[in-house]
Amino acid sequence: MNALSIIIVNYKSWEPLSKCLDSIQNQKNINLEVIVLDNNSNDNKIDEYKSKYTYINWIENVDNYGFSRACNIGALNAKGKWLLFLNPDTEIPKNCFEKLLEKTKNIDSTIFSIKQLNEKNKDTHAYGIFLNLYSINGTLRFLYRLVFGISKGKLSKKSSFSPDWVSGSFLMINKDDFIKIGGWDEDFWMYYEDMDICKRAREFKIKTLFFNDLYCFHYHGKSSRKDFKIKITSKAAVIKSSLIYIDKHFDGLYGQLLTFLILSSKIIELFVLSIFLKEKRSLLKKIWKF
């Protein structure tokens, strides 16, 4: 059995994907398989990449299934003890996987992630607080972190810590735990699926653990912000997925209040900015159809 199955969902992200796969090839002393699911890029490039990366298990989806459904298909085909869900716009430093598996070999019932650096080597803080009344915008999140002593500055000084959720751009979980949780929720086409899976994991006493002393590079936006159309679709998906998350995890007046606050504040913001920016006008039209 492979120690690690890496599952990557691709949609027209060939250049970043190529760099990602090259970095994976440089990983040594580890038994792994790599599964790439192409979400119907339909740009006549997959055959070229199949020829170049023959060690990859390529799966061609007949439509753009989004992140969650494609990941679940990848997990069904995976043979490894561990599943690592990885974005195509990431690059992995030498021996990263070997070090990660060494750290995690005696830790049970845990979802793992590592520090992610951007193009400027800045920490992107790829974790967060569960969506709630105190975390619906940046100001409230900042105050909450300040009050409870969990500011990003303090957390970044720890070798490891347990946040509410970790980003799906680099998320590793034991396959048995993944099955126990029920996999990714396919109601989330893209975004908030990582927050959701970590929240459901808690119901099974599966915690999260984030390592600051291991890192990868994540060039955020090279996949989801590739062109104007994809950018608008992605930004609309963030808002829609937040509403799906609220509907799933909150009942009654509290859930209705969260929905109202998030949707109304976003519409007001977009309405004002749409006077000046085409992107905001397009996004406003998109979410008006929710």
Beta-sheet strand percentage?
15-25%
Low-confidence stretches: none
- Overall mean pLDDT: 92
Q: Looking at the structure, what is the overall shape?
A: globular
Helix content bin: 40-55%
Rg for CA atoms: 19 Å
Head-to-tail CA distance between termini: 44 Å
Report the strand count: 11
Count of discrete alpha- or pi-helical segments spanning 4 or more residues:
11
N to C succession of SSEs:
EHEHEHEEHEEHHEEEHHEHHH
Structural class: alpha/beta
Largest beta sheet, briefly? Answer: 9 strands, mixed
Overview of this protein structure:
- The chain has 290 residues and is of the alpha/beta class.
- It contains 11 helices and 11 strands.
- The strands form 2 sheets. Strands 1, 2, 3, 4, 5, 6, 8, 10 and 11 form a 9-stranded mixed beta sheet that branches. It has a two-stranded antiparallel ribbon with strand order 7-9.
- α10 (252-273) runs antiparallel to α11.
- The longest helix has 22 residues, at 228-249.
- The mean pLDDT is 92.
